[in-house]
Automatic annotation (TrEMBL):
Its EC number is 3.4.14.9. It catalyses: Release of an N-terminal tripeptide from a polypeptide, but also has endopeptidase activity. The keyword Phosphoprotein does not apply. Binds 1 Ca(2+) ion per subunit. Keywords: Calcium, Hydrolase, Metal-binding, Protease, Serine protease, Zymogen. PANTHER family: PROTEASE S8 TRIPEPTIDYL PEPTIDASE I CLN2 (PTHR14218), TRIPEPTIDYL-PEPTIDASE 1 (PTHR14218:SF15). SUPFAM superfamilies: Protease propeptides/inhibitors (SSF54897), Subtilisin-like (SSF52743). This is Tripeptidyl-peptidase 1. GO terms for molecular function: metal ion binding; serine-type endopeptidase activity; tripeptidyl-peptidase activity. Gene3D superfamilies: Peptidase S8/S53 domain (3.40.50.200). Residues 160-576 form the Peptidase S53 domain. Ca(2+) binds at D529, I530, G554, D556. It comes from Adineta steineri.
Length: 587
């Protein structure tokens, strides 16, 4: 049961957020603690008393307050049916075996506290299937035991992406040689019961010459059943910064029943100890967000929009604590997985479309170079051609006509729910600056304006390689792709940037977007601008009817601001942080 929050308290959170995440503000990096945030959001005593009294009268089996405004209620099906006047049925997930009880009817209710309640979860929302990995099983190539992996359609060389490849392309320091300037941490947030295997991770480290270190686990983990999604997430972030502490989050240890994004985020925001960076490789389409039960007299606001707003507040809480959240932008372009390209509007991916996370798109290499890598890992010599480690090359946006990988398209577009945040207005305005010229000269440069909300939150923010990552999962070797490769790569990079920031200011970089867009304006050489590719097609269909966006100079809804030049970003951050400290000392 999600209670309404005080609009003034939420407004205050927003005001604080934009101050402490703005690099030019004197309060930049003055992160809050969890208790400080909860004190701002604490509900009026009379409201809580009224709600608790009503809950006591119901004689539920158990009631637990989560944070300041959400109650977890456990009771019988019979009791719920009576309370909501609905017929509940049992549903079993054929893949996971999990059972839930839901009504397929619209749920609304009215009683003496209905005016205090935002919505209910766990009545008619499907919490087991509302999230989808952005790196699906289609986007992988199994490497047979003889090392001769061949694409069915071609016998050309298949470029394998290993950590030295990424470091070379993005000028990332090798922390195993340079060391880390500060202790840092990063974590993968998993859904759908995805597990990891320590044994797989050890094999991965051996192939790549990375020192193995145990992972900090929060929740439940069945090492006998590792998921390729989880292994990709953990291995990619560890590969870029093997000296960072790695966290893994699965199902909530408190046994909250939902695997939905809101409850997952609530669980996180109620933890005092969290990693400095969280990477999310899952997405829900905005139109598919959980439709919760709401009070009968409050159908004014779209329930999906209400759920979206409420979940964003949890992302704000993390941002206020100086925690970076990265989210994959999706693997079905501007459309969605279920689209047949006859749709009249695009269906953006959430949480990539949230204004309070950093959304990451995917690129791939063309004109690939195959020079010998410095400190070439075992993975580069263990297999026979056509598997060859990439040295580097030219980057383009991932699209279905990519010659090496034809099973996904980098997600991007504009939110239908969230307004465009101020930090990206300049970059997005530039994207539309020459719209009329392109519509006359190259009509396909922009999709029909009726298909998207050009005033909405634009995504992705940045991009990174998303094709053919060397991966070990379930005692097998794979090349795996998807924007869920790109997001954890950025996590590893940000952990290195955090180490520099912590050394100078004692603080993490936190919510990145205001910094990233300011940096792109002042330091264009901090990004590799991607200008080739589009996201018209989905991972399942590509016809002449498919619409989408084109990569362009500057920010675009395919690869965002581009991919990182970490060497230049480190210089920029160093100067920014040192300037901040001089101001602080002067004041």
């Amino acid at each position: 049961m999600v209670l309404k929050q005080d609009p003034k308290a939420v407004q205050k959170l927003n005001e604080i957020l934009w101050k402490i995440t703005d690099p030019v503000n004197s309060e930049y990096q003055n992160w809050l603690t969890r208790s400080e945030i909860n004190r701002i959001l604490t509900l009026d005593y009379q409201v809580l008393t009224a709600v608790k009294y009503w809950l006591w009268k119901q004689s539920f089996k158990s009631v637990r307050l989560i944070g300041t405004d959400v109650f977890e209620i456990v009771t019988t099906i019979r009791h719920v049916q009576k309370l909501f006047s609905g017929q509940f049925r049992t549903y079993k997930n054929s893949r996971t075996g999990k059972t839930i009880h839901r009504t397929h009817d619209d749920v609304c209710w009215a009683n003496e506290i209905s005016h205090l309640i935002d919505f209910f979860l766990g009545l008619n929302d499907d919490t087991l299937t509302n999230s989808k990995p952005t790196g699906s099983s289609k986007k992988r190539i199994l490497i047979p035991n003889d090392g001769n992996a061949r694409d069915a359609a071609t016998t050309q060389i298949i470029p394998m992406i290993v950590p030295p490849s990424v470091r070379l392309c993005y000028k990332i320091p090798d922390v195993l040689k340079t060391g880390l300037e500060s202790n840092v941490s990063q974590g993968a947030l998993e859904f759908e019961g995805q597990n990891y295997s320590e044994e797989d991770l050890q094999i991965f480290c051996e192939f790549l010459g990375i020192p193995f270190k145990p992972i900090h686990t929060e929740g439940i983990n069945d090492q006998s059943n590792p998921g390729i999604e989880t292994m990709l997430d953990i291995e990619q972030m560890m590969a870029i910064n093997p000296l960072s502490k790695i966290w893994y989050f699965n199902d909530d240890v408190k046994n909250i029943i939902s695997d939905g994004i809101l409850i997952k985020m609530l669980t996180l925001t109620e933890s005092d100890k969290l990693p400095q960076i969280l990477s999310i490789s899952y997405g829900i389409y905005e139109l598919n967000l959980c439709v919760p039960g709401i009070p009968c007299d409050q159908n004014v606001v779209d329930p999906k929009h209400r759920y979206f707003i409420r979940t964003n507040i949890e992302f704000i809480k993390l941002a206020l604590r100086g925690i970076t959240v990265l989210a994959s932008s999706g693997d079905d372009g501007a459309n969605d997985y279920f689209s047949n390209c006859t749709n009249k509007v695009f269906n953006p991916t959430y949480p990539a479309s949230s204004p309070f996370v950093t959304s990451v798109g995917a690129t791939t290499l063309v004109n690939v170079q195959y020079n010998a890598l410095q400190d070439q890992p075992l993975a580069c010599s263990a297999f026979n051609p056509p598997l060859v480690c990439a040295y580097c090359g030219d980057e383009i946006a991932v699209s279905v006509n990519d010659p090496f990988f034809t099973d996904f398209t980098s997600g991007g577009g504009f939110s239908n729910f969230a307004p465009q945040p101020p930090y990206q207005k300049h970059a997005v305005d530039r994207y539309f600056l020459n719209e009329q010229y392109y519509l006359n000269e190259i009509p396909e440069m922009y999709p029909p304006s009726s298909m998207y909300n050009r005033k909405g939150r634009a995504y992705p923010d940045v991009a990174a390689l998303g094709v053919n990552a060397f991966t070990v999962a379930n005692d097998s070797l794979y090349l795996v792709g998807g924007t869920s490769m790109s997001s954890p790569l950025w996590a590893g990079i940000v952990s290195i940037l955090n180490a520099r920031s912590i050394k100078i200011t004692g603080k993490t970089l936190g919510f990145l977007n205001p910094l990233l867009y300011k940096m792109a304006k002042e330091c264009p050489e901090c990004f590799n601008d991607i200008t080739v590719g589009n996201n018209k097609c989905t991972s399942t269909i590509c016809t002449d009817q498919c619409k989408g966006f084109q990569a362009a100079c500057g920010w675009d809804p395919v690869t965002g601001l581009g991919t990182p030049n970490v060497e230049n970003i480190l210089k920029y951050i160093t100067e920014l942080c040192e300037k901040k400290m001089k101001k602080t000392e002067y004041n």
